[in-house]
Amino acid sequence: MLQRSIDRVTRIPALGPGFDGDHHKAALVVAPGDLPATDPFFLMADDNVTRAGAFGEPHPHAGLETVTFMLKGSMQDTGGKLEEGDVEWMTAGSGIVHAENSMVSAGMRLFQLWLILPEAERNMPPRVQILRRDAMPTHTEPGVAATVYSGRLGNAEAPTRNAVPVTLVDIELEPGATFELPLPASYNAFAVVIDGAVDAGAEDHQLGTGSVGWSGPADGEEGCLNLKALEGGARVLVYAGQPQNIEVVAKGPFIAGSREELSGYYTTYRNGKFPHAGTMRPVDHAGEDTA
Predict the structure, then answer these.
(1) Domain spans of the chain, in order of start
(2) Is residue 139 part of an annotated ligand binding site?
(3) C-alpha torsion angle, residues 19, 25, 31, 33 (rounded to 10)
(4) Confidence band (pLDDT; 50, 70, 90) for 291?
(5) Is 157 annotated as a binding residue?
(6) Is 100 a known ligand-binding residue?
(7) What are phi and psi of 114, to 5 degrees?
(8) Is residue 102 pLDDT above 70, yes or no?
(9) Three-class SS of residue 84?
(10) Span 132-178, pLDDT tens digits
(11) 3-state class of 10 per DSSP?
């Protein structure tokens, strides 16, 4: 099978001031502004909170999906609670308001990814999916444990409903362990090292904690991203998705196909016509739907 290359390497910048006071620090893992290189990933933030309590304010989204991965601690709002290792996959679609009465634990850390939606699904009805870590399928090999949150890995297929085809895998490797992650050739992919260090890709690029290795689409049908843990082992999150190759216009919390569509989102929101996530029934993939 074709081995994918690591085309470029970036790093998570030093944490700076967040939007919620001195106890909130943040950095951009994926910065906006170069969608042809990151498509379908518009941005991804690394949010860190040092003090327990209220966090942020209710706000809208439209024209995108947010994928919130709880790395440490917990966060609770009117829509439910996310514990360490849980993921909220929220399709904003035609518009939604969320993060009402948010409360977080001290030491909380999360990644929030913004995905652009295909043109045909950009204004789909909003939905919320809660992916519980303990309920997600796992793929194991000697020295490797991979939790699949979206997409499929071997016989491990996540229950996540996707508007954009996306693979999201949390991979833990013991020292010296190697792993080949198969990915469609058309997918754009990036690997974030949460802890430890790996040699990645066909050229064995060394990625340490906080490194982000990008592997762009290639010819053919499928290739694999090779990972080899160095001394001490590693934990790596891999995000991969089908580029949409569309023009978008973004402002604030909205992503649209035109300025007219963007203006329509603002008008609808100001008229109070966006549903609130806390009043919706999210799909909880640990079991039945929750109120």
Answers:
(1) 2-243
(2) no
(3) 30
(4) very low
(5) no
(6) yes
(7) -110, 125
(8) yes
(9) coil
(10) 999 999 999 999 999 999 999 999 999 999 999 999 999 999 999 99
(11) strand
